[in-house]
């Protein structure tokens, strides 16, 4: 069986007032949004980087540079859909994915299941192939100081026979 593992990591800082907080393709109620060229969805960005990494295709910035105006305000779900098309063209699909959101706030627990379902839909996998969890940094570092949110994603990609 031809399998590949990829890891993705993304960070965005707080400070985009009047911008919705998008995490895992889900709008999470919060007073502040994340600064980014796109919609700032750190979860979908980390997943995108994990898939691209497993395929040996670089990172999200290589495919959707923040210097390109056409990606300003881009929907990260659309970017991930394009990346999944690249995977399909190479006969790879997601086996499973594990995501860790690192944020001091807001509380993620009420939104985890919706994120899980949205991510499963975007990746064309069963819900039980997607795990989403969250942690704080116990008020340490930039996350602990509420300066931003980070996310790690690990994906197992499987090639069709």
CATH topology: 60s Ribosomal Protein L30, Chain: A
Radius of gyration: 15 Å
Provide a count of the helices. Answer: 5
The number of distinct β-strands equals 7
Shape: globular
Q: Separation of termini?
A: 8 Å
The CATH superfamily name is: 2-C-methyl-D-erythritol 2,4-cyclodiphosphate synthase
The helical percent reads: 25-40%
Strand order of the largest sheet: 4-1-7-5-6
CATH top level is: Alpha Beta
* Largest sheet properties: 5 strands, mixed
CATH hierarchy: architecture: 2-Layer Sandwich
Q: What is the percentage of strand-forming residues?
A: 25-35%
- Low-confidence parts: none
Mean pLDDT: 95
Structural class: alpha+beta
Number of domains: 1
Order of helices and strands: EEEEHHHEHEHE
Give the quaternary arrangement of the chains: single chain
Keywords: Isoprene biosynthesis, Lyase, Metal-binding
Subunit structure: Homotrimer.
Cofactor: a divalent metal cation
Catalytic activity: 4-CDP-2-C-methyl-D-erythritol 2-phosphate = 2-C-methyl-D-erythritol 2,4-cyclic diphosphate + CMP
């Amino acid at each position: 069986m031809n399998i590949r593992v990829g890891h993705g990591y993304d960070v965005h800082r707080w400070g985009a007032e009047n911008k919705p907080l998008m995490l895992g393709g889900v709008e999470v109620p919060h007073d502040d949004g994340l600064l980014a060229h796109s919609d700032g969805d750190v979860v979908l960005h980390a997943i995108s980087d994990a898939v691209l990494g497993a395929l040996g295709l670089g990172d999200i910035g290589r495919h959707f540079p923040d210097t390109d105006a056409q990606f300003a305000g881009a929907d990260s779900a659309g970017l991930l859909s394009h990346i999944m098309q690249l995977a399909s063209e190479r006969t790879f699909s997601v086996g499973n994915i594990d995501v860790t959101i690192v944020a001091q706030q807001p509380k993620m627990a009420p939104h985890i299941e919706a994120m899980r379902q949205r991510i499963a839909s975007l990746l064309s996998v069963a819900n039980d192939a997607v795990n989403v969890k969250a942690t704080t940094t116990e008020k340490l570092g930039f996350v602990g100081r509420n300066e931003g949110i980070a996310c790690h994603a690990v994906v197992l990609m499987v090639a069709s026979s």
